[in-house]
Design a protein that fits this description.
Distance between the termini: 45 Å
Helix content: 10-25%
Bound molecules: zinc ion
Order of helices and strands: EHEEEE
Radius of gyration: 14 Å
Largest sheet: 5 strands, mixed
Strand content: 15-25%
């Protein structure tokens, strides 16, 4: 079984709105989360879609071969849902709407 990661990306952002210079493990997680936000918001759809993002888990010390699937939560559009179909690592991302990683923002503001 994978873990469920519930992350509010706002907790990882600095005053410039990016992930700046976090310590190693937090930076790795923040990179993972921001990539998922970018890909999940690239298509404005609620169906999980395979991303180019590799799973970061290492079950039994072997790197998981899965790619992350992600989408905006149809029932709660303030959340992005993601999961690895291979190891079932999964998570919920909140606080993403106002970030620079949200592709849905493009074109909304003049
Ligand atoms: Zn995996």
């Amino acid at each position: 079984m994978g873990n469920t990661w519930i992350t509010n990306i706002q907790h990882f952002l600095n005053e410039h709105g990016d992930i700046g210079d976090l310590p190693g493990p937090a930076l790795n997680l923040a990179n993972h989360i921001t990539l998922i936000i970018e890909e999940a918001t690239y298509y404005n759809e609620y169906e999980p879609r395979m991303t180019t993002i590799k799973c970061r888990r290492r079950p039994r010390r072997r790197k998981c071969t899965g790619n992350i699937a992600a989408c905006i939560d149809k029932d709660n559009p303030g959340q992005i849902l993601w999961f690895c179909p291979v190891c079932d690592d999964n998570g919920i991302i909140t606080g993403w709407e106002s970030t620079i990683y949200n592709n849905l923002r493009h074109g909304e503001f003049n």
